[in-house]
Specification:
The model has no long low-confidence stretch (mean pLDDT 88). The chain starts with 5 loop residues before the first helix and ends with a strand. The protein has 403 residues and is mainly β. It folds into three domains: 6-182; 207-300, Sandwich (Immunoglobulin-like), CATH 2.60.40; 303-402, Immunoglobulin-like (Sandwich). The chain has five helices and 22 strands. A hairpin with a 2-residue loop joins strand 20 (372-380) and strand 21 (383-384). The strands form five sheets. It has a five-stranded mixed sheet. Strands 8, 9, 12, 13 and 14 form a five-stranded antiparallel sheet that branches. Strands 17, 18, 20, 21 and 22 form a five-stranded antiparallel sheet that branches. It is 15% helix and 37% strand.
Length: 403
């Protein structure tokens, strides 16, 4: 692969290619590569000047280059710089003898007939300029190609205006692409691959259509409930269920249903449910990311038990445990029969707890005194505890009487 001498080697090789045809077109003509300042490095007589005026990154190699360094900063592969070289070729000579135009014709014909830079051209240039020895350009896999560049009159004007106090000469623009420059850094080699694993499997993304309890559709989900997740393509060799921030492995999985009890430690509130199917890949097999289903929301309702009720405070225990940062609200509704019109209703919100707790104490000093019975509910992050409004039901309530 070529090194940092490659750019200069391309210029030298281009000069060597043009020397012969230009000398045939105009006797005594020479080819140089000085700045087009009108002096032409002291050259007298007809001259073709090859001037590298611009260098740009090669777009194709810029898009396909792989990362050169690992996460720890070590070198994974040699740094490869891909460049396109832009040349301005100027022609000076006797206008009466049309020498600039004759030389232009020779250059255009030569580069059209031989657009690729051959290893022999490069070796001839290195032989002429021994300071370019070891450039490695002759071993580059992609050969350098010269292509004429169509510059508009405005672009030519801007280009020549960059040369201060230089009269315009007949000129043509060419692009040389691509020049690959490889760094001298030596990367740290990885160990050879001892074995390869190839896995082929159909793409069947799991889909959740419904999350209910075993009691039935539309029934509340409680900490004691058993969940039924329905959908498509739910079964795999390694299926787990993400419930909120908790990842659990279900005991019963079929292609269309997953059944599992509500796991302990799951907080009350609105929770996302997602089926995750990991792939066992490697030797020995390890879990890797595979297929994830859509996320379906479910509401886990808390269950409360009133402990005490006074004129100033109501205390309840709650399941599941209220986690730090959750929003907790006590809801009271007058439960006298027949109820007044309208029945009294109150709500009291606690500051988010700093630690997990199962006992909640609410200050109710704003409730008017009197032996009045109230339905009691607690909402945790919007999920309310259940309330049975049937007086004949054994689970009527829960209620509290505030003395």
């Amino acid at each position: 692969m070529s090194n940092s001498l490659a750019v200069a080697t391309v210029t030298a090789a281009l000069q060597q290619i043009l020397l012969g045809p230009v000398g045939v077109a105009v006797s005594g003509a020479n080819v140089g590569f000085s700045r087009p300042d009108g002096k032409d490095a002291g050259q007298k007589g007809p001259v073709v000047n090859v001037y590298l005026y611009r260098v740009t990154p090669n777009a194709a190699y810029r898009n396909v280059d792989l990362p050169t360094r690992r996460a720890d900063g070590s070198l994974a592969k040699k740094i490869l710089t891909a460049l396109d070289l832009h040349y301005l070729i100027t022609f000076r000579g006797s206008d009466e003898q049309l020498e600039p135009q004759r030389m232009l014709g020779a250059v255009a014909s030569t580069l059209d007939a031989q657009p690729l830079l051959s290893p022999q051209n490069i070796q001839a240039a290195v032989k002429e300029f021994d300071f370019l020895t070891g450039s490695g350009l002759d071993g580059q896999i992609d050969r350098v190609r010269f292509t004429p560049t169509a510059l508009s009159l405005e672009e030519f004007t801007k280009l020549w205006s960059a040369f201060f106090q230089v009269e315009y000469s007949l000129s043509a623009a060419y692009q040389a692409s691509v020049v690959l420059i490889e760094s001298d850094d030596i990367p740290q080699e990885n160990l050879l691959v001892q074995a390869r694993n190839i896995y082929v499997l159909p793409f069947q993304e799991p889909v959740i259509t419904q999350v209910t309890s075993t009691v039935g559709r539309g029934q509340p989900i409680l900490p004691t409930s058993t969940l039924v997740i329905r959908g498509h393509h739910l079964s795999s060799n390694n299926t787990s269920v993400q419930l909120g921030d908790l990842l659990v492995t279900p005991a019963k999985v079929t292609e269309s249903t997953i059944t599992l009890p509500v796991p302990a430690g799951l907080p009350a509130g609105v929770l996302g449910v997602q089926v995750i199917q990991q792939l066992q890949i490697g030797t020995p097999p390890e879990s890797h990311s595979g297929f994830d289903s859509n996320v379906v929301a479910m509401v886990l309702h808390p269950v409360i038990t009133p402990v005490s009720a006074t004129g100033t405070e109501i205390s309840v225990t709650i399941t599941p445990t209220v986690q730090p940062g959750q929003r907790v609200t006590l809801l009271l509704n007058e439960a006298t029969i027949p109820p007044p019109s309208p029945p009294a209703a109150y709500s009291f919100t606690l500051p988010p707890p700093a630690v997990a707790t199962v006992t909640l104490n609410f200050d109710i000093t704003k409730v008017p005194p009197g032996s009045i019975q109230y339905f009691i509910r607690v909402a945790v992050d919007g999920a309310e505890s259940l309330l049975d409004l049937d007086p004949a039901s054994p689970t009527f309530g829960p209620t509290v009487t505030i003395a």
